[in-house]
Amino acid sequence: MMRLQVFCAMLLALLASPAVPEAVAQQVPLQDKPFAEHKIVLQLSDGDAKKQALVLSVANNLLKAYDPDKVAIEVVAFGPGIDLLLTGSERRKQVESLIAQGVRFDICLNTVDTLERETGKRPEFIPGATPVQVGVGQILFLAENGYTLVRP
Fold first, then answer.
1. How many angstroms separate the CA atoms of 91 and 79, rounded?
2. What's this model's pTM, rounded to 2 decimal places?
3. Which of 90, 122, 134, 138 is most buried, with most CB under 10 Å away?
4. Is residue 137 classed exposed, middle or buried when 0-12, 13-18 and 19+ CB atoms within 10 A define those classes?
5. What's the maximum distance between 2 C-alpha atoms anywhere in the chain?
6. pLDDT band at residue 35 under the 50/70/90 scheme
7. Predicted confidence band of residue 6 (pLDDT cuts 50, 70, 90)
8. d(Cα 52, Cα 46) in Å, to the nearest integer?
9. Residue 146 in contact with residue 136, Cβ under 8 Å?
10. Which of 145, 129, 144, 142 is nearest to 42 (CA)?
């Protein structure tokens, strides 16, 4: 009987501990915007030029509507959406202008790794883009930390 109680206690302790250690699930730190009253994460998972232009427009409009210090904007690009952040992007200057105004652009390294496997060449992305291992994971992290997800 005593062995069964010990076994049950050990099983409960195992189930109560996190399955994935926190060190493995590292995320990019949140933006340092202590006065931000609004926090928005814009999802970009589409390679369509109109959708990319819309994401840039939304970010621009948010900066105009709110003081840039009072809004934290993060664009997370994964899948075909990373085209916006590649060095050859037609909208590179717009992206770099938004980065200079405090908008953070995250690029999914899982997507970059997949493209490298498929093409044999690692795609080059804009130096101002912030690499994150898992794009959707970054969106979840931001949502769990008070960001509102918008998918234009």
1. 17
2. 0.81
3. 138
4. middle
5. 71
6. confident
7. very low
8. 7
9. no
10. 142
